[in-house]
Design a protein that fits this description.
The chain has 226 residues and is mainly α. Helix content is 78%, strand content 0%.
Length: 226
């Protein structure tokens, strides 16, 4: 009887593990697809940005055309590249590609796109609440990426991975912002209110999830990714 119960438990455990892996895989695939779409849309929209044709009353991009182009073209693919950097297969089979993508992420996405985004945050539509939220995420993105870069330069791989998890979580704010904002507007939330909400909701939950996963890893309840 005991052996039968043990066998049943093992089967249930394997079944649950397969479902967890499938759920995690579908989640990653969805995130990659959304990150790719956001990147393509940003490049298409701002590659030939002309402030004279920007008649949207709810943005201040037309007053800072150079900064918006640097931000859009620099940071547009940061979520996609950040997610790809977590691929075990990529790191093991093509370590040079992993390193070059990491350099692109730091030098182009964060330094150019992130600095331009931080500059734009001081003039963001929506008032102080929006500007403070975007100021903070801009500073945190630069800081976490710098910590990750400094750690890998010093050979501290585990520390590098932890800081990169935070950096990528913040980079994914560009995806979640574009997901939450239309949902709120469709739900009859006034645009100004929705914009003030997503200025914080687009990145705070992402960072909290990253911190929770790191906490569980430290507690030994979650095996670290390789």
């Amino acid at each position: 009887m005991a052996s039968q119960q043990l066998s049943t438990s093992a089967v249930h455990g394997r079944f649950a593990n397969r479902w967890r892996m499938a759920f995690r895989g579908s989640g990653v695939a969805t995130a990659l697809l959304l990150a790719l779409l956001v990147g393509v849309m940003a490049v298409v929209q701002y590659a030939r940005y002309d402030p004279l044709t920007d008649t949207r009353p709810a943005v201040n991009f037309s007053q800072h055309p150079t900064a918006i182009v640097f931000h859009a073209l620099g940071a547009s693919f940061a979520p996609l590249i950040g997610l790809l950097q977590w691929s075990t297969r990529l790191r093991k089979r093509w370590p040079a590609v992993h390193r070059w993508l990491g350099r692109f992420y730091v030098m182009i996405c964060v330094l150019i796109g992130g600095m331009a985004g931080l500059w734009l945050s001081f003039f963001a539509y929506g008032g102080p609440l929006v500007r403070i939220g975007l100021n903070i995420v801009g500073v945190l993105w630069l800081f976490t990426t710098w910590k990750a870069y400094a750690a890998i330069r010093a050979g501290r791989v585990s520390e590098h991975r932890r800081w990169m998890m935070r950096s990528v979580a913040l980079a994914l704010g560009g995806v979640t912002l574009r997901a939450y904002l239309p949902i709120l507007v469709i739900s009859s939330v006034p645009f100004l209110t929705a914009y003030r909400i997503v200025a914080w909701a687009s990145w705070v939950p992402n960072l909290l999830i990253a911190e929770y996963l790191l906490y569980r890893e430290r507690q030994g309840r979650l095996r670290p990714s390789r």
